[in-house]
Design brief:
Layout (H helix, E strand, L loop, with lengths): L32 H10 L3 E2 L6 E2 L17 H12 L4 H4 L9
Antiparallel strand pairs: 1-2
């Protein structure tokens, strides 16, 4: 948008078929859903190298409602099971939706 107020803002995609859409995040930098969960549990991530290096948990533009939290092992398994329940194999196997080009 080239609007400085939008820096760090991203449109959030649907969770439908989310377990089939790796890599994750706006830039495809996270390989697994488990890593995504770890990032959210931590309230952000610390990128240690590269052009976007920095501690996202301390980013001044991060919404104050984004905070770290805890998940038990059972809650983590339940969350992944819930995300798996959003998989729609009928879309995956329908030739109409196979190739968007």
């Amino acid at each position: 948008t080239k609007n400085p107020d939008d820096d760090g803002s991203f449109r959030i995609p649907s969770l439908r078929n989310v377990l089939l859409t790796a890599p994750y995040m706006h830039d495809g930098s996270v390989a697994t859903i488990e890593e995504v969960i770890d990032i959210y549990v931590a309230g952000g991530r610390n990128i240690t190298e590269g052009p976007h290096a920095g501690d996202g948990r301390k980013n001044a533009k991060k919404d104050m409602r984004v905070k770290s939290f805890t998940l038990t092992g059972e809650e983590r398994k339940d969350l992944i099971a819930f995300l798996a329940s959003l998989t729609d194999s009928s879309v995956l196997n329908n030739p109409r939706w196979k190739n968007p080009f």
